[in-house]
Structures are given as C-alpha cells and as structure tokens.
C-alpha cells in the first residue's frame, strides 16, 4: 500500500514563514516592508528566518513582529509569540562588592578622626603662640607714670585691647547637590539601555512602571528606550519631545554633554 504524504497546512509553518508568505501574497518585497516599518532589510529577513539572536533584546523582537503582522494582515493572536522567543525577564543585578557594616562604621570613624587631628594640629600651635600675650595684656596697657595701686581703677586703653584670635576649622563642608540634568520616569514597563560617553554600558534592563532614573550632565552619551512612548524624559525638569527619535515605538538618541537629548543615535 502506497502512503501519500500528508498535505502541508499553514499550521506547519512558523510565524516567520507565515509573514514571508503573507508578504509575497501582498506583492511586497523585503525593501518595501523595511521602508514602511522604518527598519532595515536585515531585520525583516531575520524576522522571517526567526533568527532572534541578530535582533537584540526580546522586547524589540515582539514589537517588530507585531508591526510586521499588522502590515501584511496576519492576525496577531495567531503569531505564537511564546514559541521560540524567550520570556522577558528583568536583568539580575549582582553586587560587585560587599562592605560589612562594621567596616563601614570603622571607616566613618577614621575619617572623622582625621579631621579632628588636622584641626587640632592647626589650632593648638596657634593657641600656644598667643597664650603669653594674653597673660600680659593688662600689664602692657599700664602707663609708666601711674602708681601701682591705680592701675586697676581706670579703664584699659583701646591700644591694649587685642582682637580675639580666629582659628580656621578643617571640618568638611557639605556641598550643595545639584539637580540631575537628565531624568527618566516610566509610565509603563519599558526596556532601557544607557551607554556612557566612553561606550561603557551603565544599565541595560527591563524597568517597571513607576521606576525613575536620574543622571548628571556628561554621565550619559546614548539612550535606547523600548516602548519609548511610555517613557517621560526630562532635561533639567522640562519634558522632552521624543517624536523625532521614535521608530517602531523604539526611541534612540544621543545625549549631549549638558544632558539634553540631541540627534537620533545610529
């Protein structure tokens, strides 16, 4: 008995293959899709090939798949986003170093002792140097022609009165903390990537709604915000318009040395 091969149905295809077939049925090329979705042709090809390793964070993959599906008319609820795409998990933050509480207390006490010793080293010699003059202050003011008994009855001349010695203290002065130049407020969950001007990765994680971040001027060189429409960016307290930097609901922009968003990041 000859068995006939089972007919291949649309269920056998992955959602990347379904996107490709829907694109071909609509008469669109890869470049057409890339132009309409404002993404590179390489990203479109990776979505159809289900090559997630080339696309970066998971939140980007899901957003790009939804945008592609809506463009070619494939129902989003049939895309099977939970297959082949790892679930979104917040980044695990591990402390790089741990200082025991007793060690921190000992360091604080040691710093205060240093200030006390420095202050004493300056104040004590000054006090010792002025002590002899303080002891003979009234005798220097007595006139030669005044009898010894009358010296205490009259006021001391102004020339004999000495100004008190003021000793400078080396105690630390608390500096005024400046307001942050750049701040973020998340109205919804969003993926955030913060890069320093020298290329160091300051933070790359999924933040939750209500989370806040603040940065000083010159601390940030580039920002990438997944679900960028849900992130409120402020420069010195003023809300910034991210519309020029948004592509497929992802905001990418460079940050100038004063902390203000400047040109779209490449």
Topology:
Elements: H1 15-25, H2 30-37, H3 41-49, H4 58-72, H5 101-135, H6 137-140, E1 182-186, E2 190-195, E3 201-207, E4 212-215, E5 222-226, E6 231-235, E7 238-239, E8 246-247, E9 250-255, E10 261-264
Antiparallel strand pairs: 1-4, 1-6, 2-3, 2-5, 5-9, 6-7, 8-9, 9-10
Helix pairs in contact: 2-3
Can you walk through the features of this model?
The chain is an alpha+beta fold and about 270 residues long. Among the domains are: about 10-80, lambda repressor-like DNA-binding domains (434 Repressor (Amino-terminal Domain), Orthogonal Bundle); about 180-265, no CATH class. About 30% of the residues lie in helices and about 15% in strands. The protein is built from six helices and ten strands, in the order H-H-H-H-H-H-E-E-E-E-E-E-E-E-E-E. The chain has helices at about 15-25, 30-35, 40-50, 60-70, 100-135, 135-140; strands at about 180-185, 190-195, 200-205, 210-215, 220-225, 230-235, 240, 245, 250-255, 260-265. The strands form two sheets. Strands 2, 3, 5, 8, 9 and 10 form a six-stranded antiparallel β-sheet that branches. Helix 2 packs across helix 3. It is elongated. The model is unreliable at about 1-10 and about 135-145 (pLDDT under 50).
């Amino acid at each position: 008995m000859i068995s006939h091969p089972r007919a291949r149905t649309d269920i056998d295809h992955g959602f990347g293959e379904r996107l490709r077939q829907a694109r071909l049925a609509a008469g669109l090329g890869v470049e057409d899709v890339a132009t309409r979705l404002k993404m590179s042709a390489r990203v479109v090809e990776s979505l159809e090939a289900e090559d997630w390793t080339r696309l970066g964070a998971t939140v980007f993959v899901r957003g790009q798949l939804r945008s592609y599906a809506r463009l070619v008319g494939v129902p989003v609820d049939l895309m099977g986003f939970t297959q082949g795409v790892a679930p979104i998990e917040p980044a695990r933050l591990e402390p790089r170093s741990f200082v025991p509480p007793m060690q921190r207390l000992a360091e604080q006490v040691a710093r205060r002792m240093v200030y006390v010793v420095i202050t004493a080293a300056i104040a004590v010699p000054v006090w010792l140097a002025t002590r002899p003059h303080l002891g003979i202050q009234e005798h220097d003011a007595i006139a030669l022609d005044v009898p010894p008994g009358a010296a205490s009855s009259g006021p001391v001349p102004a020339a004999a009165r000495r100004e008190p010695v003021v000793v400078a203290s080396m105690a630390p002065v608390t500096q005024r903390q400046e307001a942050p130049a750049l701040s973020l407020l998340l109205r919804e969950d969003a993926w955030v990537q913060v890069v320093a001007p020298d290329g160091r990765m300051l933070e790359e994680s999924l933040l939750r709604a209500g989370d806040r971040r603040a940065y000083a001027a010159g601390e940030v060189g580039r920002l990438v915000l997944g679900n960028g429409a849900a992130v409120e960016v402020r420069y010195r307290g003023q809300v910034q318009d991210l519309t020029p930097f948004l592509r497929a609901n992802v905001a990418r922009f460079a940050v100038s040395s004063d902390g203000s968003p400047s040109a779209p990041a490449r």
